[in-house]
Amino acid sequence: MVLRSHALTVLARPFIEASVVAGARGGRIVFRHLLPHLMPLAAVYMLIGVTGAIVADGFLSFFAYGSSRFNWGTMIAFAITFNPTTTTPWPVFAAAGVSISTFAASFYLLAIGIRNGLPDDLISVERSSNRTPLSPNRHRG
Question: Where are the domains of the chain?
Answer without folding.
Answer: 2-123
